[in-house]
Amino acid sequence: MKKVVALVLGIILLGTVLPQTGAISVTTTTGLSPTMIMMLSYFYYRNYNALLSEFNSTYQKAVELGVDNETLSKAMELYSNATVLIQKATQYSAGGNILASLGSYRIMILVRNAYFYLREALDVLNEAVQNKTFTSIHH
């Protein structure tokens, strides 16, 4: 996995360092270059994975503080949506490896949307934890 990440980052960096004079600019039908799609895909994938452990620990903290079931259910619904999208991205990826398909616009969209769902789930939990903490301090 580390080799794949290093290879992808190397390709991205090489594309940004090489002189572009006289080169033909390649864009997709979306207007994004393949390099930009790879960079965005990697950005969202990395940040999605970074948020997973934060979501899990914040969810546990919310349960311990007694956050209401409606809020916990909303966070879990958003988390579930994110998980479904990551599973689809994995399914559509070459060999089931998202990192091997970073140049795919479809993968980028799925991973981006998964990241935003997870980000929203974490925001819901953080707000609830903050409110519970504030309420317990002032009572």
Describe this structure in words.
The chain has 139 residues and is an all-alpha fold. The chain has one domain (2-137). The protein is built from four helices and no strands. The chain has helices at 2-17, 34-65, 69-92, 105-137. α1 (2-17) packs across α2, α2 (34-65) runs parallel beside α4 and α3 (69-92) runs antiparallel to α4 (105-137). The termini are far apart.
Helix content: over 70%
Poorly predicted regions are 13-25
**Average of pLDDT:** 84
Distance between the termini: 50 Å
How many helices? The count is 4
Strand content: under 5%
Broad shape: elongated
Could you state the order of secondary-structure elements as H and E?
HHHH
Largest sheet: none
Structure class? mainly alpha
What is the radius of gyration?
19 Å
Quickly describe the structure.
The chain is mostly helical.
Main features:
mainly alpha, 139 residues, elongated
Element layout with pairings:
Layout: H1 2-17, H2 34-65, H3 69-92, H4 105-137
Helix pairs in contact: 1-2, 2-4, 3-4
